[in-house]
Amino acid sequence: METAPLIDPFARAITYLRVSVTDRCDFRCVYCMSENMTFLPKKELLTLEELDRMCSTFVSLGVRKLRITGGEPLVRREIMTFFRSMTRHLESGDLSEITITTNGSQLERFAKDLYAAGVRRINVSLDTLDESKFARVTRWGRLPQVLRGIDAAQAAGLRVKINTVALKGFNEDELFTLTEWCASRDMDLTFIEVMPMGDLGGEDRVGQYWSLKDLQARLAQSYTLTELAHRTGGPARYVRLDETGQQIGFITPLTHNFCESCNRVRLTCTGELFMCLGQEDNADLRSPLRSDPNSNVALENAIRAAISLKPRGHDFDYSRQQADGQVSRHMSHTGG
Ligand code: SAM
Ligand code: SF4
Known about the structure:
This protein has ten helices and 13 strands. By secondary structure, it is α/β, with parallel strands linked by helices. The protein has one domain: TIM Barrel. Strand 5 (159-168), helix 6 (175-184) and strand 6 form a beta-alpha-beta unit. Bound molecules: S-adenosylmethionine and iron/sulfur cluster. S-adenosylmethionine binds at residues 25, 31-32, 69-70, 72, 101-103, 125, 163, 165, 192, 194-195, 197, 331-332, 335-336.
């Protein structure tokens, strides 16, 4: 019997699941985490087997693409076991793609294993090519380690896309350096507008909000930009730089002009499902999952019930948000 796919009340098919596999990270990026984070007790986390059951259930309900994120997904113990177990869905054709968003610190170790498990594309977050600025923005990170990780990923055959958070006064002066560096390594590049997430203790955020409209206008002074029509169902728009052939993306999470094509939901490492990045509404999937170790029926029902509550967009009900659109949870909680 065919299982009915996940269709939300606005007739959007849910085919894309982002999964945060840990809230932990080996970096402390200033816009994402405070220096002294309290992480969840281990028992709160879904085990690797539970993550497998969760993802497999979503796949059986029509999810075609999984993106694994965190925290830093590659610091989760034994995470390769999970990737290897997901390979079966790629082989059966039920899943068309499994990707990962990573800070790159562990890629030197895991790039080959990721490729062997069927991963073909990865996103690496990197805001600067300057070693001391990198140390400042990530607090704990080391640039050479990440660059070695990117080398290892490309050598393993993974297609790498760089994600850069646009920070005024921080990486503004590297716009062209970063673009050219990516072009020289045949990597696409996506800029992310910084979101006001969580209470980061009023710390120096290193940079400030830099509008991607401004960033794009600056790019257009040196390159010919061709707008690309394709959309991914997410908050990214793309242009092609005619001179380099590179694709440049712009992610503006707080705009809502993509909501009508939104095809995604987000699962946290504790099994909460967020139906919309911009809203606090979520559904607990861990309890139904744990309620019956031998059957996924309760879980399936809970997933369907949650999808039936997916809001039209994140501007849908302002009373749920603070006036500036701030959402109180950290990005590392929902994985971006
Ligand atoms: N640790 C991995 C990484 O950094 O790629 C995956 C998780 S991280 C939360 C996912 C993405 O969210 C990264 O590209 C990061 O730059 C972005 N991010 C984190 N906090 C953000 C914020 N306040 N505004 C915009 N993007 C943010
Ligand atoms: Fe860690 Fe990624 Fe957040 Fe940086 S952005 S602190 S690497 S989870």
